[in-house]
């Protein structure tokens, strides 16, 4: 991969988190994503699923800030993201994915209309995950392809582990060749 491709990938992944487009990632981006998901699926913030989604968003933000907010200003710039989150993901993809797991679990539960604390891991229909991806900023064609590709066992549903594995794979960005 050349440097231009690497920079393009970093910019695209950063933009996925910078929900309001203000040039940095902060708690408000995670809360805004949660609020849009709840609205899309007609779920109230005060119900168990809504509370789990906000709790997952906060945990995700705290994890992101913990690994990438170098200057401690409670904002992650694109440079901090590339140097912190992306590097740490390359170094330990499972750790970064686990930071996202509570948010992904709750997102799937909201999309499925199910209790996130159920005995079995949550899963949601492919079409519902496609809607969630659109709400989070994916273009229609990308959301459709991505949702279908997440259904690795082809059962028509996307399980938490499928979403976590795909998240880790997507955000793993290999450094450009020297």
UniProtKB/TrEMBL annotation:
Residues 5-40 form the EF-hand domain. It holds the Pfam family EF-hand_7. SUPFAM superfamilies: EF-hand. This is EF-hand domain-containing protein.
